[in-house]
């Protein structure tokens, strides 16, 4: 199973911190999983210009191709101005229509205020649904007060991140089986 | 129709086209050389002519996995080994070419082939040519519309004076040589953009439309929009031919066709677009209402005739050599297409 993480912002540390914890949890619990964590802050990604994702070169090509090869994707995003950051939206724009077909996608979100709780529900999920993702419905919402010096200090959040990892892997396995069963019915 | 060398009495023109794709081999197969692939395309055209098909097309791409970048050269070679079959580009990436050069090339081809050349001009569904030749993808529409305008003008009146954004102006220029009968049939290639079909209608030029998969009725909307736009712009749609292009695979046994073809189709999509072909969408191919042309000759006859009910098109051309299809199978498909499908389709449409 290939799991790719996307830390969706190029500024700040909270999303990155939460993603690092999440991927450490995956490594401990599912050592066989093939994991890649992409922190957008470390890559120079160009704006989408409409071409096929395979035709981008350099960092942009690396990021798009890595995402397209994944079985499961965990998206970590902060909330900026009551929405996802432009850097994350650009990743979606770089990918083809139906890019997430046959992929499981789960989410964690960091925010400065609890007022942002439904942002992911109302803005990120519709994009993922349009791109045909199998969405892990429950996401982890982490507030500013849950962090201290680049660590998560709220045990409740840590438990919820562990569950997010479990749900992501479990749903990916389940969905793969469902797909295999469906495909076995075809005569080709 | 006569302007475009289409004889109504022949029912429907049937033909083949190739994009010259050469993907890396599936794990078990041996990699074919560019040299061999090039030769195979010529052989395929010869077989098509011998089998009595009407049209042979060669695409144009400028990127990895496609070796047909010099379309007029390939068509010129085919012209030398055939006598009757029409030679078309399918399609020329006009947006990144000089229309004058394109017109020279195809006029030359027309003379060498005794009047068999046609240009199908498009914007390119693969974008390799844009980077390579220094064009900006942001000018996607403007580039094509300007160059297509010049190409059509070169075909109507010379000497010509012309000015545009993307090419140096022409002052009283004349292009040599001229096509055999003074004019070339020039078509507009239409892909998935509805507006492109409408634009073709507005200009009153024939439409060459790709209808690869999905419900056939989806493309009917595009065809209707094209004819409506032509009528509104003062053209008679009855005088404007429509060509439909797609991919095809035939086997005497329909179940075997469905099973054997899938890896090639899937390989093509995975390589060219980076997305596998969804199996559930492929399974819809068993319905006559679905555009994927895979099955027994009888199924394909029914599908073509069903589409003809919807589109009333005048030409139907298919790609049969994609995804590293072995040449032996290509030959078999040509034979089934020419001996079983073509006669039945022609007969049904003439009546």
TrEMBL record, chain A:
SUPFAM superfamilies in the record: Flavoproteins (SSF52218)
InterPro entries attached to this UniProt entry: Flavoprotein-like_sf, FMN_Rdtase-like_dom, NAD(P)H-dep_FMN_reductase
Single GO molecular function: oxidoreductase activity
Record-annotated NADPH-dependent FMN reductase-like domain positions: 1-144
EC code(s) of this entry: 1.-.-.-
UniProt entry keywords in alphabetical sequence: Flavoprotein, FMN, Oxidoreductase
Signal peptide range: none
A Pfam match: FMN_red
Top-rank taxon, per record: Bacteria
EC top class, as a word: oxidoreductase
Protein name: NADPH-dependent FMN reductase
Species of provenance: Neobacillus novalis
Automatic annotation (TrEMBL), chain B:
Luciferase-like domain boundaries: 12-311
One Pfam family from the record: Bac_luciferase
UniProt cross-references to InterPro entries, sorted A to Z: Bact_Lucif_Oxidored, Luciferase-like_dom, Luciferase-like_sf
Superkingdom of origin organism: Bacteria
Keywords noted in UniProt: Monooxygenase, Oxidoreductase
Molecular functions (GO terms): monooxygenase activity; oxidoreductase activity, acting on paired donors, with incorporation or reduction of molecular oxygen
GO CC annotations, alphabetized: cytosol
Protein name: LLM class flavin-dependent oxidoreductase
